[in-house]
Amino acid sequence: xxxPFDTKVALxxxxxxxxxxxxxxxxxxxxxxxxxAPDALGELYRDMLGRTHGRLLGxxxxxxxxxxxxxxxxxQKTIDRELEHCVYVRAMFSTGHDEANREAxxxxxxxxxxxxxxxxxGPKNSVDKAIKGLMLHP
Length: 138
Prior knowledge:
Layout: E1 7-14, H1 19-36, E2 45-46, E3 52-53, E4 61-66, H2 68-80, E5 84-89, H3 98-106, E6 115-123, H4 124-130, E7 135-136
Parallel strand pairs: 1-4
Antiparallel strand pairs: 1-6, 2-3, 4-7, 5-6
């Protein structure tokens, strides 16, 4: 039986991206969630020989798909609810490293960044309200 979770993790990825971009955005956002919540990591995995393998987030990550308006709406609700979150903007596709990514994000309009990805983690009800109306990624 699976334990109930008090928190929920949701990633929202723009519908209009190429498959490699969607996977890249989801991977980056998942690392952000994990970095922000190291207590949510499970224990090391061990195989039959006793070798250890890396820890994974101890709860499911639900991946949703949205158009630009849906992403922005979820972002605004995330900000209003002060949920833990990570962002990925379109301009980050043209950068090559973390510092340049942060610089690209800093140039985005505060109220309406050109989001292609958003990750959020928080109390289940609050996350559900922030992502209301978004579909799971097909």
